[in-house]
Amino acid sequence: MNVRRTMKARRALTAVAITTGLVLTVAGCSGGGDDDKPDSDASAEQSDQDNGGGGGPDAPDDNEVLAEVKGGDDLTLTFNSAKREEGGFVTVTGKLTNNGSGLWLSPGWSGDEEELAAKNKTSMAGAKLTDKSGKKRYYILRDTEGRCLCTSFSKGIQGGDTETWYAQFPAPPKGNNTVDFQIADMPPATIKISDE
């Protein structure tokens, strides 16, 4: 009889521990506190990120161009916004156009860091923001599983196509709003962070 009671108690404790762990995992993953955002928007945003073309948190404002650079592989990288967000980070958004005729697959855009590149092979994980006045360089933010908080071009970009993109970085101190964005062999682009 004692063995049965002990086994039942152990099963109950195991069930409670597993349930508590799952609840804490879900609470930890829910993150951002964007409670008034409709669920359909959140799933559409996730779908955009999975498909590699998403504008991330906010789609870029096509009317405003902060900067534009052209580089190897006939690419044009356009910057539509750079916003300082609550929580101490900056979200940069824009468009990437493949002006060539073939498929572009983001070679070297995931950066040189082995751990980061391994989990973000077709992404913008190698991008950096440089705050010249503060003399600091800021690297792409990552989630708890090591994935960058940036767009992944998992299917590449066909010649003549344009995809939206986003990348999130730690924010420089307020007042240091002019930064250089640099990725792979593209020339650096000087952009201004808005405090909206």
Automatic annotation (TrEMBL):
Residues 30-65 are annotated as: Disordered. PROSITE patterns: PROKAR_LIPOPROTEIN (PS51257). Residues 41-50 have a biased composition (Low complexity). This is Secreted protein. It comes from Streptomyces armeniacus.
